[in-house]
Description:
single chain; 343 residues; seven-stranded mixed β-sheet; 14 strands
Amino acid sequence: MRNVRTALRPHRARTAAALLAALALAATAGCSSSGGKAADDKPSDGAAAGGGKPAATERMKIAMVTHSGEGDTFWDIVQSGAKVAAGKDNVEFLYAANKEGKEQAQLVQTYIDQKVDGIVVTLAKPEAMQDVVKKAVAAGIPVVTINSGAEFSEELGALAHIGQDESVAGEAVGEELNRRGKKKALCVIHEQGNVSLEARCAGVKKTFQGTVENLNVEGVNMPASTSSIEAKLQSSKDIDAVVTLGAPFAAACVQAKNGAGSTAEINTFDLNAEVVRQLKAKEIGFAVDQQPYLQGYLAVDELWLHKVNGNVIGGGKPVLTGPALITEKDVPALEKLTADGTR
């Protein structure tokens, strides 16, 4: 796999602390079976998740609230990492999600009312989340943001942001499409109003020497999304590359491509077992990995480290977990890990 680090500002470089924490993952990988549920307040079994005896520190309760839609398996991988860190750190881990910003904020408020010891949150829709995040911080509950909205994290008072630089990731995709000789790309946005998804497509457009057209689809309705992509490919035969912004939509694009009789190359953000299979079968050209397992693991570990040792991973600056470009050459190293739900 090829790590992409072009155009990164120095303060966004991954820290040694992040890399050291990542080394702890290999022996303790766990797998969530939630299937991208909208909300699940069941606590993890701390000791079992970590595969050993938890830390001899005071029991903590940490909640994670994301913008996941129903069935988005990306968040199962995030939870897998979070649960392993929770098991190691003697943490009760709670998880809830809603794709709508207002409802996501209400979930955060619920955990504020429960007086949890820390909150992990995504900022895909920052306007809806800003007041409740500030409220958590004002209540003395430390917050770590992950995955989306990095540019808003510090101003809202979060300890740190853990994820990839979405603009840089998009720029890397544009550059890769140039290397592959593509001329017209379709960027499929599966959640309107999500600032991270918009930043990815904008990044593609910034560096791609061809033309880029965005297509908004109803991400929670996969058949409808597939039909929309197929119709677009049928009407625009000159599209020679499709970029999806989430692993589940890569399969939908492959189906749409076949239905439309298109020759466009399908590429995607994010990784799972199905994407690795598609890479192996050469149904997909490349994938952009942001290591969601690491996002969940480091977020929980940061809140624990902050409480017991006053640490702040990354010194309060964003900690990058990607992007890395994955091709069929990386399949042998990733097949087992994606099957286990950790990559």
